[in-house]
Amino acid sequence: MATKKKTESTLRGAALIKKAIAAAEANGTIESPEAVPAGALKKLRLPNDEKLSPALKELLAFDSSWLGWDIDEEDPELEPLAIDELIEQEFGEDFVSQFGEAIELLPEDCILIGEGADAKRFLYVGTPDDKGEYAVITLATDDGCWVGGFVPFDVWAAQQLGALEKEKHHGYVPQEYEALCKALAEANSDGRVNFKSETRAIERDKDSDDKDDDDEDDEDEDKE
Question: What is the pTM of this model?
Answer without folding.
Answer: 0.87
